Amino acid sequence: MKIDWSPLRHAIKHAENPRFWWRDDDAVAQTNALDQMLRLSETLRTPVQIAVIPGLLEPSLAPALDGTTARVLVHGWTHTNHAPAGEKKAEFRRADTAAIDELSQGMNILATNFGGRLDPVFVPPWNRVSPALYTPLADAGYRAISTY
After folding, report:
1. CATH label of the domain that carries residue 33
2. Does 138 reside within a domain?
């Protein structure tokens, strides 16, 4: 597959102070692909934000980020679809007690495993979150939501 980078090159050339924001979703463990992305991030001096699924986190991920500039974000709980049949996928379209507990647990698990590398940003799987969760998200310590 050949990618046409000319639109990006044009935008960079004509931007006075280009800012890049790079996020990778669905991380749970160290992989060769993750290692390659982290090396590229360091080579380009462009930090990457890793959206980690806290309920599926494996012990290999935290050490894989050591010595990098990567930041960690909370990517749902277990990336499980709770939408009714026929509706678009969403883990957090519900705003019940279980969902609120998962939001808090996700933040706590990643804070324990990643410490100061964790940014208090919620990345909802499938980019969908119920507006009824905005206040519980803030109460759990989240300061931003990242979707497309």
Report:
1. 3.20.20.370
2. yes
Q: Which residues have CB under 8 Å from 89's CB, separation 6+?
A: 81, 83, 125, 126, 128
- Who's near 50: CB < 8 A, 6+ residues apart? 23, 24, 27, 34, 65, 70, 71, 72, 73
- The number of folded domains in the chain is 1
pTM, full prediction: 0.88
Domain holding 55, by residue range, is 19-145
Domain contains 9? no
Within a domain: 1: no
Contact (Cβ atoms closer than 8 angstroms) between residue 126 and residue 147: no
- Chunked into runs of 10 residues, the chain (148 residues) has average pLDDT values of 89 81 93 96 92 98 96 98 95 94 98 98 97 96 94
**Do 131 and 122 form a contact (C-beta atoms < 8 A)?**
no
